[in-house]
Specification:
Layout lengths: L2 E3 L5 H13 L2 E3 L12 E2 L1 E3 L6 H14 L1 H7 L1 E4 L3 E5 L4 E5 L4 E2 L2 E2 L2 E6 L6 E3 L2 E5 L2 E5 L6 E5 L4 E3 L2 E4 L1 E10 L4 H21 L3 H17 L3
Antiparallel strand pairs: 1-14, 2-4, 3-7, 4-6, 5-17, 6-17, 7-15, 8-9, 10-14, 10-17, 11-16, 12-13, 12-15
Helix pairs in contact: 4-5
């Protein structure tokens, strides 16, 4: 399941992140790539020595945990501290699949949070290979896309301006992407019907079914 979430972070948080990134210390992004991805990765990332990195990582992860739609879509068990990336003209990230394990954590869902607006640069689209073919995404600043970590994807070359983004990964309580989608669809249907008709016995049954499926599928 691919899911775009508009305004995942608020304007104040976005402004704080962008102000920090203007002064942050960047280094070669290949330092955090796997052996295969390192061959096609050409970007910069905030260096782990930056004194405000941990605070900014915590700021983003707190926003993710607090976002209802994000939580429902991911069924998150753990969220990795995000990496903050910068692409200048000539930089890109070729086709790759994200690492299966990061810091001892299985990765199920990849998250790209856009921190620059589409008009801030030419190029820089996130291109994801799906069963429907290649799909490219360039969302407004503060918005994010969630996609299976199993997906082949790339960042198109930047030809003008600057692309800023935060990327992170989620270990879900529900390992299987199809099962996560079933749970998400049930909750989306229940929520939409509740707005129309209020609380009913049928909606209680949908809620019960969703909870029982989660009990069957969830992993500690």
């Amino acid at each position: 399941m691919l899911l775009c979430i508009v305004d995942l972070i608020d304007k104040q948080t976005l402004s704080e992140l962008r102000d920090w990134l203007k002064l942050a210390t960047f280094s070669d992004g290949r330092a955090t790539a796997g052996s295969d991805a390192r061959k096609v990765k050409h970007n910069e990332q905030v260096d782990k020595s930056d004194p405000k990195l941990a605070k900014m990582q915590e700021l983003v992860t707190d926003k993710l945990w607090d976002h209802a739609l994000f939580s429902e879509a991911t069924q998150a068990r753990r969220i990795r501290p995000p990496l903050f990336s910068r692409y200048a003209p000539g930089m890109a990230y070729g086709n790759h699949v994200d690492n299966v394990m990061m810091g001892g954590m299985r990765t199920d869902i990849s998250v790209t949070l856009f921190l620059s607006d589409p008009e801030d640069c030419d190029g820089g689209e996130l291109v994801i290979d799906s069963t429907a073919g290649e799909q490219d995404f360039k969302l407004p600043a503060g918005s994010a896309i969630l996609y299976p970590t199993t997906a082949l994807h790339r960042v198109a070359p930047v030809t003008r301006g600057q692309r800023l983004a935060a990327v992170t990964w989620v270990r879900s309580l529900v390992r299987d992407a199809a099962r996560r989608e079933v749970l998400f669809d049930l909750e989306t249907a229940r929520h939409g019907l509740a707005k129309q008709v209020g609380k009913t016995a049928e909606l209680d049954l949908i809620a019960k079914t969703k909870s029982n499926l989660l009990r069957m599928w969830a992993e500690d």
